[in-house]
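Take our chain:
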Amino acid sequence: MKKYDKLVRDKIPAIIRESGASCKVRTIKPGEIETYYRRKIQEELDELFENPCAEEMADVMEVVDSLRTVLNLSIEKVIDAKCAKRNDRGAFKNGTILVHVD
């Protein structure tokens, strides 16, 4: 038996059971949300850097969107904030590295 203790997509337990295996699952408790989402975001980012492709980027975006929902942040509010920051401070397109400030 392999232990995971990690956040998975909602349909994964059914997929495991349909394959003939069994699994035990539980639901995140309110005090655990940040820990499990941090771990999952890092896991998905690591996978994206190992294999940069649309599917891995989709996984990153899905877990970030799930965290946004749990934090009760509307997508509109997040997009507005993103646009405002881009307008005020720019994006990350130029690859500018801040070396030091005197």
Q: What stands out?
A: The mean pLDDT is 95. Residues 33-50 form the longest helix (18 residues). Helices lie at 12-18, 33-50, 54-70, 75-89.
